[in-house]
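Lecture notes, unit on protein representations.

Consider one protein chain, 225 amino acids long.
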Amino acid sequence: DEHRWSRRRHPRQVQPSVNAAISLELRSRVTQTCMIAIATLSCFRIQLVPNASLVMLAANGALYQIAMLNPLYRIRSLTESGRWLEALSLALDLYQAEDHIEERSLLTSRLRTLILSYLKANSGSDMEAVYANVFYYCISFNNVEFLFDDVFKHSASHLTSFLNAVLDAVETSSDVRRVPLRVVTECVSAFRDSPRLERCLSVLEPTDIDKLRPICVQNRMWSAL
């Protein structure tokens, strides 16, 4: 399933390397012959220019095309072919491998744009899984507030799926503890009779406890107080 992604999976740790800025795409069926040729190029310190391609003719007459792609170009290529999770994973890898604050800020902006595009492109899919993926990536690149701002604004037509993802995230991630009151209010309206909601509210760190307490009392959620 293209959209299924484990909510419990930890973000992948990517070690920076000299090749972190280059992604290799083999545009045709890759065989051992082709890989040996690539290794040979490396031995002779022959480098491909990013976004350029090399056409190779193997001894058996097979023709191969090898392209060295700039990672941002690769991400765009993946999204254009509908491979959203691969694009998001690559963007997250780049973010985690980047040490410079300015570059991380730029990648954060790109990740936000990519996530919103992913939501729009998959609005007719299994939204429970889509929002699970969105929460995973936002938590992974330390942008929980983005979930309750831009993502929440885009969830009007799939609000229940979004709210389910909120509860899932509260249950499985210690990074989701500050949920805005407007989102909590929507959760109460949707799941007021659910013991699960009460459990989730009990572990939150409310930003406005004076307004949250009356909601809990009104709905008899005593353990959340």
